[in-house]
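Input structure tokens:
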């Protein structure tokens, strides 16, 4: 058996320990779809939630599985087998309409994951280090890499999602302190010695996060306030970035490796797009507060929707002048407007 679909799993009952290898011993299973019935307006009972969590926990897949989809799971926590020890071969993962889960599973250490889609996880307000996975000590100081082969990431229809980070706040503060000490040079070192402390050493810049990410899509995330800074620092192969209906997002900036195109649509709170030196194409639609677009030295084409034509006059001339300075008069920035 190569593929298995299990539907209406909320109707199942947990089985005895003698049946624990229901899926684990399916050595040739490559594709597995685990689905519950789409929920109605009625809330599930505590007994129903507990039951479906137990059912999914018992459906441990074989290690050779390559394609996994979980649909309409209404438990509050994902099964514990969603991680590196049980899914070393998974290349494609889709988590769709898991509306009650409060936290994403720790899948950042899956060694072969290439495509990940998370859709409709409507209870989640924050994506943090738990998404990367558990490790001993600081991930960046080891040989571990987060999402080592992930090429395409889609996050869609997340109405309560507000924060996105890859590291704890304490680590961010340590990074900033280390950077400040390094910039301070001898003065910073002397100040530390006066306090009887060693100056903190800067964090090594190695590609430990999303080194193969090529395309990122964020759609229907109206409360998301910002992109994680590590995205610009570590995702060195990022080529395409789509952002749609992120109304609270105010800036898209400091993505020096983004080398293909950026498309922003329906981002009503967006005010600034800057420091994207390698972006070649920029598509802007219904971002009516976008007053600052700058430091796009590699831009070749600018696509503007009709409703952007007035406010874009605040920054289009500056982009055109920058383009002339960098590329000469014979290569003008192409500005395309459509109705």
């Amino acid at each position: 058996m190569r593929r298995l679909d299990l539907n209406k799993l909320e109707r199942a009952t947990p089985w005895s320990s003698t049946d624990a290898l229901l899926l684990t011993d399916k050595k040739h299973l490559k594709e597995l779809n685990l689905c519950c019935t789409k929920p109605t307006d009625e809330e599930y009972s505590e007994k129903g939630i507990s039951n479906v969590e137990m059912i999914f926990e018992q459906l441990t897949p074989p290690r050779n599985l390559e394609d996994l989809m979980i649909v309409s799971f209404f438990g509050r926590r994902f099964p514990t087998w969603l991680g590196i020890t049980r899914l070393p071969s998974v290349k494609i993962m889709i988590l769709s309409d898991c509306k009650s889960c409060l936290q994403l599973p720790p899948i950042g250490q899956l060694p072969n994951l290439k495509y990940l889609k998370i859709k409709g996880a409507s209870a989640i307000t924050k994506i943090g280090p738990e998404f990367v996975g558990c490790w001993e000590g600081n991930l960046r100081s080891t040989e571990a890499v987060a999402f080592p082969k992930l090429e395409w990431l889609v996050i869609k229809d997340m109405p309560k999602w507000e924060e996105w980070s890859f590291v704890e706040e304490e680590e961010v503060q340590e990074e900033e302190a280390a950077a400040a000490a390094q910039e301070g040079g001898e003065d910073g070192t002397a100040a530390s010695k006066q306090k009887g402390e060693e100056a903190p050493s800067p964090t090594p810049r190695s590609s430990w996060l999303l080194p193969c990410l090529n395309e990122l899509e964020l759609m229907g995330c109206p409360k998301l306030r910002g992109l994680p800074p590590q995205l610009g620092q570590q995702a060195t192969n990022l080529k395409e970035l789509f952002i749609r209906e992120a109304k609270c997002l105010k800036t898209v900036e400091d993505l020096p490796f983004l080398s293909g195109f950026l498309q922003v649509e329906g981002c009503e709170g967006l005010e600034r797009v800057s420091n994207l030196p390698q972006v070649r194409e920029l598509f802007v639609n219904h971002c009516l507060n976008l007053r600052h677009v700058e430091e796009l030295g590699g831009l070749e084409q600018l696509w503007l929707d009709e409703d952007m034509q007035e406010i874009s006059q605040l920054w289009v001339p500056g982009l055109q002048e920058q383009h002339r300075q960098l590329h000469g008069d014979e290569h003008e920035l192409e500005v395309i407007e459509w109705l």
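Residues 1-147 form one domain. The chain has five helices and 17 strands.
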